[in-house]
């Protein structure tokens, strides 16, 4: 998984194509990520208590990690990620500007 929680990414496909958001959750087992504010689905929430109204809430659904591209915090461009060095000094590097990200 080349993307981690807190990364800024851009959607490269789907209805939110071109939009950016922050990774709030990574699901390595399914190769999916949850991006804040993107790929939202409406969910009807039932009232939890009496007297409370049911409401519609928007929940971000996980998207395949191949549908997003990391935005490099240095060059601010959507980029691919490379790895340099070996564990434990392995670092993630932006393929465009070569900065460690
Ligand atoms: Zn960069």
The helix count comes to 0
CATH class: Mainly Beta
Major β-sheet annotation: 6 strands, antiparallel
Rg, nearest Å = 17 Å
Q: What is the terminal separation in angstroms? A: 14 Å
Helix-and-strand structural type? mainly beta
Overall geometry: elongated
CATH architecture: Roll
Number of strands: 10
What is this structure's SSE topology?
Layout: E1 8-11, E2 20-27, E3 32-35, E4 40-45, E5 55-60, E6 63-64, E7 68-71, E8 78-79, E9 81-84, E10 91-94
Antiparallel strand pairs: 1-2, 1-7, 2-3, 3-6, 4-5, 7-8, 9-10
Question: Can you walk me through this structure?
Answer:
This protein has 101 residues and is an all-beta fold. It has a single domain (8-94), classed as SH3 type barrels (Roll). 0% of the residues lie in helices and 44% in strands. It contains no helices and ten strands. It has strands spanning 8-11, 20-27, 32-35, 40-45, 55-60, 63-64, 68-71, 78-79, 81-84, 91-94. The strands form three sheets. The protein has a six-stranded antiparallel beta sheet, with no helix packed on it. A two-stranded antiparallel ribbon has the order 4-5. The chain has a two-stranded antiparallel ribbon with strand order 9-10. A hairpin with a 6-residue loop joins strand 9 (81-84) and strand 10. The protein is elongated. The model has no long low-confidence stretch (mean pLDDT 93). It binds zinc ion. Zinc ion (ZN) binds next to loops.
